[in-house]
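Write out the 3D structure for:
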Amino acid sequence: MFAITTDTGGDLPLEMLREHGVGLMSLHYTVEGQTYDAYHPMPDRDFYERMRGGAMPTTAQVNPDEARQVLEQALATHDEVLHIAFSSGLSGSCQSARIAAQELEEQNPGKRIVVVDSLAASLGQGLLVHYALRLREQGRSLDETARWCEDNKLHIAHLFTVDDLFHLHRGGRVSRTAAVVGSVLGIKPVLHVDDAGHLVAVGKVRGRRRALDELVRRMGEQTGGAVPDTVFISHGDCAEDADYVARRVQQTFGTAPSRVEVIGPAIGAHAGPGTVALFFLAARR
């Protein structure tokens, strides 16, 4: 059996990853001069409260040495490793993993490391890890699982909305004018992650509740009316809104989201508090 590793761009909880033996590379984040990671975190509520109070966190990609440490640990007990990385369109962490993997393969003849660029973020990446774990449990090989991930990663749909456009403006996702006008008029964007792994706006509506409903409506369009077998939701410290979307998914598709998680700092630092995101396997992104 092969090992699976990933990074904190996937927003899967540490306890779940430990339960399934998944190795974790941590992106670092700095808030008001103090640096944290997945193993020494700031509590989620504190992180988002700091942002609401005006703090502007920064994030740092996994570097090759950090990637190497996690992959070495996996190779200590396995001959083969599948690493599912945060989108290369949003972070350099995938490239760091590839550098470390090449070095380790050269130094350890007979060992194999396959790095999959998820081209996904948050629980979109987490959903790909979920499917990889399922395939491994079914007895699929490293090559079969990696091939499935490559063939299906662009079918993992991401739909999300944010409550405050200024966080996206700070990350260069929207102009300052759009942020100001949108805030005054109560305009909420609907965004997704495109085939290049970038955050892209796909629509806008007026009002928070309409934006949440729009996520579910677009989910129906993208699935062609089919019921997805697994649905994940993540949120930026707005559990009530995430629960509302979960209920709407249940009402519309007859299936309850199987995982609802808080968006971690790697994504939350750029999307901000009030973000709600919906993830599922679709005919198209």
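Residues 74 and 285 are 32 Å apart (CA to CA).
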